[in-house]
Write a structure and sequence with these properties.
It contains 3 helices and 9 strands; from the N terminus they run βββαββααββββ. It is α+β, with helices and mostly antiparallel strands.
Length: about 210
């Protein structure tokens, strides 16, 4: 079980819907789509240490319960999958009003940001890294289900696959899926056939 550090992370919702963290101070809000909020924070002990906190504020509505499942699915993957080209999680906690986890802050942003200025040699290197990461995920029986440039972080000349909210952890690599997931323009073609499909494989029977 992933370690729970309740004394290290203390978030609470105030009147402005902001987060206060006892060992960190908030630099800025990166994402605000309630009930999920993402904060860039800085350590109070060492201001050179930057982190990101992703928090899900609990509620009882069906929509927010669905989002909670996505949030916890991401935590489950990050707690069990460790690879140099996959985003890491420092620790997570479950509290009365929210779930939250802390992860490193990656200065260079996403692949979407750097792609227009990327030269061929670096593009080839990133492609090899992505293949290694996806191969490892499939070895661990994890299907990402929303792999796109916005969900690939860049740091120190390497890629990191991120955002596992739609991912599936499946019992075998032959398990068939029925639920359609992901960003429409990035979905695999077989998802549009309204049939069962294997999320680990690309169908050679689909006509593009």
């Amino acid at each position: 079980m992933y370690p729970m550090k309740r004394n290290t992370l203390e978030l609470r919702k105030n009147q402005e819907d902001a987060c206060h963290v006892n060992n960190f101070e908030v630099d800025k809000l990166l994402h605000n789509h309630f009930p999920v909020k993402v904060f860039q924070v800085r350590s109070k002990q060492d201001r050179n240490v930057k982190k990101v906190i992703k928090a899900f504020f609990k509620d009882n509505t069906d929509v927010e319960n669905k989002i909670a499942k996505h949030f916890l699915s991401e935590v489950a993957v990050l707690a069990t999958v460790h690879h140099p080209f996959i985003m890491s999680m420092d620790f997570m906690g479950s509290f009365p009003r929210y779930f939250a986890y802390v992860m490193p802050f990656y200065e260079d942003g996403t692949l979407t940001k750097v792609l227009p200025s990327m030269h061929q040699e670096m593009s080839d290197e990133y492609f090899v890294q992505l293949c290694a990461a996806v191969n490892f995920l499939h070895y661990k029986k994890v299907a990402h289900r929303d792999l796109k440039t916005d969900n690939i972080l860049i740091t120190e000349k390497k890629v990191l696959i991120a955002d596992f909210g739609l991912s599936d952890i499946l019992p075998t690599d032959d398990t068939m899926a029925t639920q359609r997931k992901g960003t429409v323009v990035y979905k695999s073609p077989e998802q549009f056939l309204k049939k069962q499909f294997n999320p680990f494989k690309v169908s050679n029977k689909v006509i593009f």
